[in-house]
Design a protein that fits this description.
The protein is α/β, with parallel strands linked by helices. Helix content is 41%, strand content 16%. The strands form two sheets. Strands 1, 2, 4, 5, 7, 8, 9 and 10 form an eight-stranded mixed sheet that branches. Strands 3-6 form a two-stranded parallel sheet. β7 (170-172) and β8 form a beta hairpin. α1 (15-26) packs across α10 and α5 (96-107) packs across α6. The radius of gyration is 19 Å and the shape is globular.
């Protein structure tokens, strides 16, 4: 059965998304159109390029992710230079090695730009901080002076995965140096993205979210300034998406609890990776026991009808 898929962000916790897709593929589901933010954007892009979940697992498992961390070199080795660079460059790592890695993997499937993909098959979310708005790639690229079909998918991924202060933001030169960072700032789980797509009436949409169901999430303990900042960021990141997700839509979302893992754990070992894959597979298997594609199609039809009126 062919479905549409929406993948949430979550950094290195995204291995759980791969496990979930493996289970879906084994059960006979295949993705027609995909969308995602950050880690979800990576999985979505590789699927759109033609990779299977098993191929993605092998590709990720073979990679030493610490090689993708590329701090700028300095003639001075004083510790404060690192923080001075962060102040001016706005990120600890350049992000070029990450973009080059995306380019190499996509090139193996002859995918370089959005023009190499079927129109509408891939949508990625990024955050335009300069103008204070969300970007959907490639849909919004014309507004920034770029040809969507000629825009690099690897560059778009670099934009969607640009964790603030961790990686240097992308500057869009065609739009006077617009600063773009991780899409998770504004929509970490863009389940809304196929709403205006008439194809959603014909094809079910499954969401894969790297978190527990909101009703299962315990309240936060906020006792100091650091915990306050973490709570502020988490609330800001999830508020838009949580408001959008209705009770009907929750039935179409695979919630994958991975709170015990870090999004920036670039030294993750094989056991931790296998645990994440296993969590994704297990949660998806449980989800498919009760999920009804017919119910989802009726919900999609009702959403589109409501939008018209």
């Amino acid at each position: 059965m062919r479905i549409n898929g929406v993948f949430s962000g979550g950094g290195l916790k995204g291995f759980a998304l791969v496990g979930a897709v493996q289970e879906l593929e084994e059960q006979g589901y295949h993705f027609e159109n995909v969308a995602g933010t950050s880690a979800g954007a990576i999985v979505a892009s590789f699927l759109a390029a033609g990779y299977t979940a098993n191929e993605i697992e092998v590709m990720l498992a073979e990679e030493d992710f610490q090689d993708l961390l590329d701090p700028r070199k300095s003639l001075l080795s004083f510790p404060f230079m690192k923080w001075l660079s962060l102040y001016w460059r706005m990120g600890l790592y350049q992000g070029k090695a990450l973009e080059d890695w995306f380019f190499d993997k996509l090139a193996r499937k002859s995918c370089y730009t959005f023009g190499d993909l079927r129109k509408g098959s891939l949508k990625l979310v990024a955050s335009d901080l300069t103008n204070g708005k969300m970007m959907v790639l490639p849909d919004d690229l014309e507004q920034y002076g770029y040809d969507p079909d000629g825009f690099s998918i690897a560059k778009a991924l670099r934009m969607s995965c640009g964790i603030p202060y961790f990686f240097e933001p992308v500057r869009l030169i065609a739009q006077k140096g617009t600063i773009v960072v991780d899409g998770g700032i504004l929509s970490n789980f863009p389940m809304w993205i196929f709403d205006e797509d008439t194809v959603s009436i014909k094809r079910p949409v499954i969401g894969l979210k790297l978190s527990r169901d909101q009703n299962e999430v315990p309240g936060r303990s906020i006792r100091n300034a650091l915990q306050l900042f973490e709570a502020l960021f988490a609330t800001m990141k999830n508020a838009h998406d949580e408001k959008y997700i209705s009770r009907d839509q929750e039935k179409n979302i695979i919630f994958i609890p991975v709170e015990d893992y870090s999004a920036t754990q670039f030294d993750m070992n094989e056991e931790e990776i296998e645990n994440l894959l296993s969590i994704g597979r297990s949660r998806t298997k449980d989800f498919l026991l009760t999920w009804s594609p017919i119910h989802l199609q009726l919900v999609s039809q009702r959403n589109v009808t409501q939008m018209k009126y």
